[in-house]
Design goal:
There is one protein chain. The chain is an alpha+beta fold. The protein has one domain: 2-Layer Sandwich (Alpha-Beta Plaits). Helices cover about 30% and strands about 30% of the residues. Strands 1, 2, 3, 4 and 5 form a five-stranded antiparallel beta sheet that branches. A hairpin with a 6-residue loop joins strand 2 and strand 3. The chain is globular. The relative contact order is 0.33.
Length: about 100
């Protein structure tokens, strides 16, 4: 399993437009084979922060999605990018 998680920072005035521009991508990704979850969301505390979370069954599924994803070109510049990819070797419920 792969997890892609973190956040980007952009101008506060562009944040909602950035999230809105990715709604179709998120909708399509969630229907893609091997996608377990995807979210691109506005942070509730920081007006410059967009949170990114993706969970994929495998590298192969992620690569196939990326080949057809057609992410929108918003023209919005990142001030910073703190999104990383993690390879998961084990999973368990966190509260039980």
């Amino acid at each position: 399993m792969l997890i892609i998680a973190g956040h980007i920072e952009i101008d506060a005035a562009d944040r909602d437009a950035f999230v809105e521009a990715h709604l179709d991508l998120v909708h399509r990704a969630r229907k893609a084979p091997g996608c377990l979850d995807v979210a691109i969301t506005a942070d509730p505390l920081d007006p410059t922060r967009v949170n990114n979370f993706e969970r994929w069954e495998s590298r192969e599924h992620l690569d196939k999605w990326r080949a057809v994803a057609a992410a929108p070109n918003t023209g919005i510049s990142f001030k910073s990018n703190q999104v990383m990819e993690y390879t998961v070797t084990n999973e368990r419920p966190p509260f039980g």
